[in-house]
Amino acid sequence: MWIYILIFFLTSSWATAQGTTNSNIIVNTTTSPVKVYVNRKEVFNLGSDSRLICSNTTQTKAIFVIWEIELKHKACKISFSHEGHDVDSCNDGKSIQNSTGLSFLHIPNFSVNDVGTYRCEAAYTGGNENYNISVGVTAPPAVSAWLERRGNKMVAVCRAERGIPAANISWSLTGNYSMKQQNDPDGVVTVESQLEVPEDIDPENLTCIVRHQLWEREKTFTPRFRGLPIWYFIPIFGIIFILVAGFSIYALKKIILLRKCQTDTSSKSPPQAEDVEEVEPYASYVQRVNSIYN
Questions:
Q1: Bridge partners of 48?
Q2: What are the φ/ψ torsions at residue 89 (nearest 5 degrees)?
Q3: What's the chain's average pLDDT?
């Protein structure tokens, strides 16, 4: 064994000394193009002007950028190339723009109709990048809280309207409560919670707690009566009724007394004088007759 090793070593040393090379050894000095495949998620606020970045490669190095978009109601494509072969089959305001050489897809006034899958391919010298981006929308809810009377019960209501996703509502105390959710056709969600307030609880100490994805912290709301409750007005209605009734009785008595006075005055009036026009013609006639006989 050692003899074979020694012979191999001597043979190799002699070949090196003669300056020969092994022609079967090939060194690959070329490198293959870089390919990148990325899946990610993006969420934008409802009504915002949004940017989707496909690649960190500057536009001056990009050969072409292609956006293939799949939405709920349609599929379309927007592309850019240095050769000027630009395409836009979306025709809804979306456009490929750049800022300091960085290419991005601009989506104005983001709505629920822009939610979908955005596939981007960016090719540049030495590489190719492919992104599959799942795009969603979010919107903060409008919250209102109030108290109302339902028979002998007091009910607290807390409502978070038109939020994406749905808000979470809880109360500062445990009790008999109900929850309902309404999904509108435009994708927004309204959540309402109703709590029956126990009689031994001061409503001033009651709060509803609302949590939402957009808020860093939960928010608390104290329910109040909308205006004044109807039972606040019962004493006022009673006073008004008494005043109106008293005034009506007083006015009726005045009318009766006035009519009685008019009746008494007409019964005590003096007799009317005889009509002078009927007496004077007869007296003149008697005077004429006497003058004839005389």
A1: none
A2: -100, 0
A3: 79
**pLDDT surpasses 90 at 219:** yes
Token output for 46: 């409802």
DSSP-assigned letters across all residues of 210-268: EE-TT-SS-EEE--EESSS-GGGGHHHHHHHHHHHHHHHHHHHHHHHHHHHHHHHHHHT
Q: For residue range 245-256, list pLDDT tens digits in order.
A: 777 787 777 777
8 Å CB contact between 121 and 105: no
Instruction: State the amino acid at position 65 in one-letter form.
Output: V
**Among candidate residues 137, 163, 175, 179, the one with its CA nearest the CA of residue 219:** 163
> Residue 42: phi, psi to the nearest 5?
-135, 145
3-class DSSP assignment, residue 105: strand
The answer to whether 115 touches 72, Cβ cutoff 8 Å, is yes
E strand spans, 125-200: 127-138, 142-150, 153-163, 168-171, 177-183, 189-197
- The reported pTM is 0.58
Find tokens 């983001």 and name the residue.
Answer: 110
Token pair in block for residue 70: 């799949």
Instruction: Read off the pLDDT of each residue in 104-124 and give the average, rounded to a whole number.
Output: 93
Q: What is the DSSP letter of 193?
A: E
Is the dihedral angle over the CA atoms 41, 45, 50, 56 positive or is it negative? negative
Q: How confident is the model at residue 101 (pLDDT cuts 50, 70, 90)?
A: confident
Helices of type H across the chain: 2-17, 234-267, 276-293
User: Around Cβ 177, how many Cβ atoms within 10 Å?
Assistant: 18
Per the model's pLDDT, the better-predicted residue between 287 and 49 turns out to be 49
How far, in Å, CA of 148 to CA of 233, rounded?
15
The more confidently predicted of residues 45 and 272 is 45
